[in-house]
Amino acid sequence: MRILVIGGGGREHTLVWKIALSPRVERVFAAPGNAGTAAVAENLDLRATDFESLGKAAREKKIDLALVGPEAPLASGIVDYFDSLGIPVFGPTKEAARVESSKAFARSLMEKHGIPCPGGAVFSSHQEAREYIKEQRMPLVIKADGLAAGKGVIIANSLSEAEKALADVMDTKAFGPAGDRVVIDEYVTGREVSLIAFCDGKTVSAMVPACDYKKIGDKDTGPNTGGMGSYSPPGFFSAAMTERVTGDILLSAVKALASEGMTYRGVLYAGLMIADGKPLVLEFNARFGDPETQVILPLLKTDLVDVLMAVVEGRLDGMNIEWRSEACVGVVMASGGYPGSYKTGFPVKGLDSLDSDALVFHAGTRPGSDGSVLTDGGRVLTVVATGKDMAAAREKAYDNVSRLSFEGCYYRKDIALRETDGVHSIA
Predict the structure, then answer these.
(1) Where are the alpha helices (DSSP H) in 188-291?
(2) Do 354 and 216 share a structural domain?
(3) Do residues 19 and 6 touch, judged by C-beta distance below 8 A?
(4) I want to staple 183 with a disulfide (CB 3.0 to 4.6 A). Which of 103, 225, 347, 409 is the partner?
(5) pTM for the whole structure
(6) Of all helices (H) and strands (E), which one includes residue 217?
(7) What is the CATH number for 237?
(8) CATH code of the domain covering residue 7
């Protein structure tokens, strides 16, 4: 098979790596890819949102399956476009991807079909939103309705903070048109976890659960990022809870979409809060998570390509998907200044010094003209290690992180620490 992975981040490098391990695969292509994917695939210098060029390349390269990584092309209808060309593609249609591209749509779907989520309301009027928050208990969670690269969520601890957040989102347009509407949720506390599942429109098969770290700083301080690290599986999320969420939330969402005329194929990601033993949906995503994918796929025993094809062909119910009973930890190494302004173009040193069983997935990198690897984004690398338990995986991950460097390099020091010191703080 010849497979095209669309996207250029750490998630896509992980997908390329896992796909390339399949004996079914002849060649892998990545568009646009990065310096990491270049080592195991052929990079195509094409933007993930340039549908026409991607379609043309898929035909020229005789692609048997395209897999879409990022949310933006899914929200813009890349699956619909590839379907129109007759090219097999893994991912939900534009309409079904609204579970991520519109938080208002997702909230409406959950409320209509009884899927548990925090209480809240949707507003397109700034004035009406202001009147609403005056009557609510603080803190509140204010979310831009549309896509905002994982950064469109603001926790307001006071009325003045909430009013400023509304002004930033709806008037100043800090997140662009994503802020034309806002979703205002009650603030709930508990333990956060991500559960992602393969879906073929009828059957849902959950992956191993994972926890990510959204804040830039240790002890969950500072602004939100795209994710500074992750680990799998969390000790507090039992097999029974996985089964409960799979049925009550993930399968219910797929059935809800089907009842609205949408066949959901691809992966469905539920960002959850476990509050007093009850799972609540904080968000749905319509694709593999990042950085969760980097710690989930190393634990997958079944050939990923077999699973992808079962989803595309609607026969997931016949798959027995197996997972390793190990722990996995991933630490993101970021450019200094991220998630604010940062500089790029610095050489990454130490890539040839890593343990043979450690993994490094590239995100913001590009090949240098002299064969070097240069930084090219905010999140640069995710260093991943597995172990017999979380402590062993964490120690190995950080030992390998210490061997890598680039100018301005920054990473959190507490990824998965709560799983090894008995303290379960919130990610």
Answers:
(1) 239-245, 252-259
(2) yes
(3) no
(4) 103
(5) 0.95
(6) strand 215-217
(7) 3.30.470.20
(8) 3.40.50.20
